[in-house]
């Protein structure tokens, strides 16, 4: 197990500030049945270091940090803390030793207050009143303002992350793990986070920073460890690498470049939204307010914005999951459709790909052919006088498999058995094969590996070239820059006027995502503030 | 005057088992577990409670038997719903069916027997005050205990760290687990507390309410206790109001029949449930955000290891 060769540390030991690494894993292995989530991983974390952990989804990043934080027990290997081997019985022991963690999916309690949430992350040795006082003090010191009395459901995503960070900082950790912290932040909020992290580093703490945003890692991190398929590929200095070389190490090969086909022409408006306003359907929902846009055939419109600003509600209003009282608010192919059901909208030529693959995009325990039928029954000839044409459903699966390179164990497996990337290729493929006039797709490549993401983006571009109107909602600004012709931003249920992609700089989009206006006067004010 | 006092006394007596059972279920549900087996745990508590009191002649021992019986029943539920992650609704319903059968078996030998019911408090002077004397100072121990219980539960949930952790498990068990709290162990304790309360509430019926045991004597009170928790929107304060309101409806129903009021008794029996539906509708309309029910209520949790 220990026989493999150890990678060279890019920084010679003499240059590290401490005597020994703060935390080391030696041959750390985690096995789930036959599957090796972590295959003898060695990693050294030094004090005063921001260490990036890079890798695609499924590379084993989360498993590794869960083991370091004591949430799972490694199957083999050793964790050393300040040179001493340790066995962590659970997160509270990790915390008491000085290891803090900020989760990607926040571990917060929506119906409890900020102060109660913070208290739950501490060991409870101080009184609630003292804790609240210290909370305000820590949040002020690090420039992370929080109101301890508010309940979490009332807060924005950025504020929720602040709770997580403050909660971790209140334990005065020597070592802080952050799991994809900027995935949900605007570029400006991310910049503020970097200031906090630089400060932690200056205070002598170590940070393990999980991300797949390579530019960010190059800017912020001193060291990067790259994982692929559960194994460590390399430890390097990200500042000496290029984004492309890091990506190659993550993927283990070149990524196919996405190319916009030549000769794309915009035609008639195929999807028009007129002054759409809609009250939220659930307790924590967002009200859509006066949303208007026009999307022509051959065009891709991108919708950017921090999650939870009404993108889900807009998707539901466009797909017909929620109906509008006024039919004219949503016009598909020239026909007022605001009051029409999902099936009726599909018959008009629209197709929809929701964000959540399992449970919304597909029924997880049903076969792919059955899932093909679920969205294709109205307009794809899979139903014959009320009976299912099984051969036709299987043919749809085969066509999607061939066209979009869906990898699966057998011809017609359950949807849940596919990996995220392959399932997403299947879902997008299923809709594109119906030759839709309008495709509304939400987070097309969220949590999808780089290879599959390239296939999906190319497919969207090809669909637009064939004359369809494509609406893409995404939190990934790079993705929108790559495929969209125009980009609009959603904030608090309102949609900004679309900008041509060539004019939509990160800075402008960031301001819009934070709720500022691009009017010259107000923009200046926003920068001054 | 005498009649009003009698009615108030009857309402208190009818409300007490509802309050005790619902207090236990409130704690269970606040931890995120929906145990629909309250009726089953109550009826077994009633049978065992009567058996204990009849065999030893002590009401206290009877009450203890009821508590133990309810707790054991709830452990069956915890084993299935928490240990084996079986669907909670199905397990709870099965527990009720099991409880009804089991209580018939246990209680079969005791049908027709009588015991001396629990004694009522008597403080010379105070208890003799007209109208309020017997209401405040002339109750049996169960009534005072039920009030202390709900106050204690309120204090526990909102003023102690353990209560905060329990509420956190009910709000989001994934987060609670990620922070290192033993979600299943906490929930098991909450389920056991719920079972103990249900067992005691059941034992109250043959020990204080009527001094004999008959099969099926809980007569749907477990279901009313469940509705009561929803009616109270999982808050201890509202639970007290609800329990006495529902108790009053039960008594009103008896008196209405006695006075020959032309309302079908079935309609009166349905009133608590109708009230629960109306309260739920009003609450969801008045709500500005957040969730009234524990967000993780009734969902299965399997920690990854």
Automatic annotation (TrEMBL), chain A:
Residues 1-20 are annotated as: Disordered. Residues 23-254, 271-517 form the ABC transporter domain. The keyword NAD does not apply. InterPro entries: AAA+_ATPase, ABC_carbohydrate_import_ATPase, ABC_transporter-like_ATP-bd, ABC_transporter-like_CS, P-loop_NTPase. The keyword ATP-binding applies. GO terms for molecular function: ATP binding; ATP hydrolysis activity. Coiled coil: none annotated. SMART domains: AAA. PROSITE patterns: ABC_TRANSPORTER_1 (PS00211), ABC_TRANSPORTER_2 (PS50893). CDD domains: ABC_Carb_Monos_I, ABC_Carb_Monos_II. It comes from the Bacteria. Keywords: ATP-binding, Nucleotide-binding. Belongs to the ABC transporter superfamily. Involved in beta-(1-->2)glucan export. Transmembrane domains (TMD) form a pore in the inner membrane and the ATP-binding domain (NBD) is responsible for energy generation. This is Nucleoside ABC transporter ATP-binding protein.
Automatic annotation (TrEMBL), chain B:
It is found in: Cell membrane. The keyword Membrane applies. One of its GO terms (molecular function) is transmembrane transporter activity. GO terms for cellular component: plasma membrane. The chain crosses the membrane at residues 6-27, 34-55, 61-86, 93-112, 141-158, 189-207, 213-232, 239-256, 262-283. It is a multi-pass membrane protein. PANTHER family: ABC TRANSPORTER PERMEASE PROTEIN (PTHR43370:SF2), SUGAR ABC TRANSPORTER INTEGRAL MEMBRANE PROTEIN-RELATED (PTHR43370). This is Nucleoside ABC transporter membrane protein.
